[in-house]
Design a protein that fits this description.
A seven-stranded parallel sheet has the order 3-2-1-4-5-6-10, with helices on both faces. Strands 7-9 form a two-stranded parallel sheet. Strands 8-11 form a two-stranded parallel sheet. It has one domain: Rossmann fold (3-Layer(aba) Sandwich), CATH 3.40.50.720. By secondary structure, it is α/β, with parallel strands linked by helices. The protein is globular, with a radius of gyration of 21 Å. The protein binds NADP nicotinamide-adenine-dinucleotide phosphate. The site of NADP nicotinamide-adenine-dinucleotide phosphate has 25 residues, from helix 1, strand 2, strand 5 and strand 7.
């Protein structure tokens, strides 16, 4: 009998890839989102569903007789765990996207403390899933994800759930593409860039196709577990810049700075972290036989093409408003004047 999958958040960057992977693997997929959109790359037979998952009655109705696996891209807190566990009788198993932001180092540092002095966590390299996490709560994105995880793991066999702790997600349909930091500079033919931390920052990326593969395998083999999700390599920020330049045929001078950003809006980037964040992938390999289906380098040209196309001639804040909301509060990523002032002061 055909196995059924119900995907919440189906038209986001991860959802699009996951729906495709599941449908191509023979699942009968219902693809739910508030706008109920479809994707040209989905095989025939995928059914779209208009659903706001915050509306529990609507979710119950949409689920109908239920599904063999429910895949949730947009679960963020304990209430979402309660919502899913209340439907356990109708859901065979679940795969839910969590985040690497849950980890806390042995000094109590996490992504939540990164703006303070020496606040960036010093994680082990790589971080295993067994490593400690922030305390569950309502305070931050990370604490809420931990609460979500704990709520779902507590369901045990009544709703076997794989929590996927994703790294820095990249791919097409990314509304907050970190890659834009280098892409826009290349499009603007910016001749120079400044990278703090000697350009050696590493924030483990994960391509949407690799996440989709992990989701596909977890759907096949239900279990109550937590798994990291990262690409086969974790390139440095300098390597990412070089790779994006190569895709776009751009060349520029990279000025490397020891230590943190030397001035406001100078040297920082979406990957510009003080200590490496690399996720251990051996559990996914061991438990599910997971093998990555692509790498950062191999997937980059498609991601860059999609991002350049969406940017078009528009101001980036208009083309990527979600990205502006996420990163805009931390300063202007494209403050070329500040960069030029700092470079002039340095050489003078
Ligand atoms: N970005 C990263 O680097 C990163 C890193 C680690 C973990 N994560 C996790 O990744 C997940 C986000 O996945 P994504 O990047 O694929 O998201 P996304 O691209 O922002 O897409 C979100 C999807 O969910 C739908 N959606 C939003 N709210 C909904 C609602 N209330 N009910 C039903 N559908 C809804 C959206 O379509 P409509 O607008 O039509 O509803 C869309 O299909 C989150 O769990 C996040 O914590 C992200």
């Amino acid at each position: 009998m055909t196995r059924t999958a119900f995907v919440i958040g189906a038209t986001g960057q991860v959802g699009r890839a996951a729906v495709r992977a599941l449908a191509e693997d023979g699942w009968d997929v219902r693809a739910a989102s508030r706008r109920g959109e479809s994707d040209a790359n989905w095989p025939d037979g995928v059914r779209t569903v208009v659903l706001d998952r915050e509306d529990i009655a609507a979710l119950e109705t949409a689920l109908g007789d239920g599904c063999d696996v429910l895949v949730d891209m947009v679960a963020y807190h304990a209430e979402h765990a309660r919502q899913l566990t209340s439907l356990a009788g109708r859901i065979g198993s679940a795969v839910v996207i969590s985040s690497g932001a849950v980890y806390e180092d042995d000094q109590g540092r996490s992504f939540d403390t990164q703006s303070g002095p020496d606040g960036f966590p010093h994680y082990p390299l790589p971080i295993p899933e067994s490593y400690r996490t922030v305390t569950a709560g309502e305070a931050t994105y990370g604490t809420r994800k931990v609460a979500l995880e704990q709520g779902l793991l507590a369901a045990g066999e009544s709703l076997p759930t794989t929590l996927v702790r994703a790294g820095a997600i990249h791919g097409t349909y990314n509304l907050r593409p970190r890659e834009l930091f280098f892409i826009k500079r290349a499009v603007d033919k910016r001749p120079v860039r400044v990278l703090a931390h000697n350009g050696e920052s590493r924030f483990h990326p994960v391509h949407t196709a690799n996440l989709a593969e992990l989701i596909r395998l977890a759907a096949r083999t239900p279990g109550s577990r937590v798994l990291n999700a990262g690409d086969p390599q974790a390139p440095t920020v300098a390597e990412i810049g070089t790779a994006i330049d190569a895709v776009l045929g751009h060349s520029c001078e990279t000025v490397l700075v020891e230590g943190p950003a030397p001035a406001e809006n100078v040297g920082d980037s979406p990957w510009g972290i003080a200590h490496p964040v690399v996720y251990d992938m051996t559990a996914a390999e061991r438990e599910l036989g997971y093998r990555a289906v692509t790498s950062y380098q191999d997937s980059l040209a498609e991601t860059v093409a999609w991002t350049v196309d969406r940017l078009g001639d528009r101001d980036w804040t208009e083309a990527f408003p979600e990205m502006y909301r996420t990163y805009g509060s931390h300063g202007d990523m494209f403050d070329y004047a500040a960069e030029d002032r700092w470079l002039a002061g340095r050489s003078g």
